[in-house]
Each structure stands twice: as structure tokens, then as C-alpha cells.
Amino acid sequence: MFIVDIQGFQYKESEFIIREIAIYDIESNMIDHALIKLQHAVTWFSPDVRKHMQWCTNNIHGLEWKEKDDTGNSNNICKPVYLPQESIGNYLKDIIGNNTILVKGLNKKKALEKFLCNTIIDMDKFNCPNIDSLSNCNLDTHCGEHINNTLNCAKNNVCALYSWFVK
Ligand SMILES: [Zn+2]
Q1: Phi, psi of 87 (to 5 degrees)
Q2: Which of 7, 74, 139, 154 has its CA 20 to 30 A from that of 122?
Q3: 142 C-alpha to ligand 1 centroid (Å)
Q4: Cβ neighbours of residue 31 closer than 8 Å, sequence gap 6 or more
Q5: What is the pLDDT of residues 123-162, one digit of tens each?
Q6: How far is it, in rounded angstroms, from Cα 97 to Cα 50?
Q7: What's the order of all strands across the beta sheet hosting 120-122?
Q8: On the CB side of 164, how many CA atoms lie within 13 Å of its CA?
Q9: Which residue, among 85, 84, 105, 35, has the nearest Cα to 64 in the 3D structure?
Q10: How far is the CA of 12 from the centre of ligand 1 (A)?
Q11: How far is the CA of 59 from the centre of ligand 1 (A)?
Q12: What share of the chain is helix, strand, coil (3-state, %, to 5)?
């Protein structure tokens, strides 16, 4: 079984655009982590969408909208993989196989269902608390690729969700 968290951009009913993925393997305690390169420049979107995306960056996850040559923070020793959008499905399948996935929240469950046929369980079914109350911004598990380490990191989140799940 695997716990997955994704961070990204979603405007109203639009598709969830994934910017960061973390996968926690409950059997082995191994974590896989990737940042996703974006297909379009932010200017491709309407001003309303751009405003919302900037709000997500500033208030939710601190991941900036960067297309193409995204190489991340050069000071970060534990570098994530940088994947193009079209590789997300294969990346998830290679790591997770046919195993069951736990994810926090219906929107993220729906976003993952676009890529996978696995059984995906929304952790809210187990009354999983709000992620902010679980995550204490542990800098050991925060990936360091965000503008601010107090904002949501998928890697930090899967560690927090795992700790809660096995408690
Ligand atoms: Zn992160």
C-alpha cells in the first residue's frame, strides 16, 4: 500500500494541474518524490486563472509556476526528479504497480484516477484530520523546493499522513 500526495494548481472546476508528487511506500518506508515541469507558460492562462495560481503559490504550497527548464534549487542536496507532464502516469505506475493507494481528499483522488486504475481510497473516509494539523513543517522531510518551508510540501505531507495512519 502507498500513500500519495500531490500539490498543484486547480481553478474552480478545472483539471488539477500537478506540480509535485510524493509517494510513500508503507512496506519499505521508502519515499519517491518528483516535481513536474509544466507544459505552458503562465501567460497562456487568463488573468483570473493566473491570479488564482499566484495565490496558491503564496498561500498553499509555495511552488512557483515554472515551465520547461525547471532545474530546481541548486542548494538542495536531496534533489527531486523533474518530470514532464506526459510522464506522470508512467512514473506513478512504475512505483506503485497495482497496489492500493491512500490519498487525502476527494480532489486529489479524482486527479490520480485520471492516471491510474488502482484502488484509490480517500483518507477522509478514516476521518483523517486536516493536513495542516498533522504536518508540523518538519524541515527534515520538507523538500526545500518551495518559496517558503512553512507551506505545503507533498513529501512532508506523505510523512505526516503515514505517521497518522500507523498510529
Ligand atoms: Zn516539496
Answers
A1: -95, -5
A2: 139
A3: 6
A4: 22, 23, 24, 25, 155, 158, 159
A5: 999 999 998 888 765 668 889 889 988 899 999 999 999 9
A6: 35
A7: 81-84, 30-37, 17-25, 2-9, 101-103, 120-122
A8: 23
A9: 35
A10: 23
A11: 14
A12: 35, 20, 45
Separation CA 163–CA 58 (nearest Å):
27
C-alpha neighbours within 13 Å on the C-beta side of residue 155: 22
22 alpha carbon – ligand 1 mean position (Å): 8
Distance (Å) from CA 159 to ligand 1 centroid: 12
- The residue ranking higher by pLDDT, 131 or 119, is 119
> Own/partner pairs for 68-77, CB < 8 Å, 24+ apart?
68/37, 68/38, 70/35, 70/37, 70/38, 72/35, 72/145, 73/144, 73/145, 75/144, 76/143, 76/144, 76/145
pTM equals 0.90
Q: Which three cell numbers stand for residue 151?
A: 507551506
Q: Which domains does the chain have, with CATH numbers?
A: 2-166 (3.30.420)
Identity of the residue numbered 135: S
Cα(167)–Cα(158) distance, integer angstroms: 14
Question: In Å, how far are 10, 72, 128 from 133, measured between CA atoms?
Answer: 22, 28, 10
Is the distance from CB of 165 to CB of 25 less than 8 angstroms?
Answer: no
- Compute the distance from residue 154 Cα to the ligand 1 centre, in Å: 5
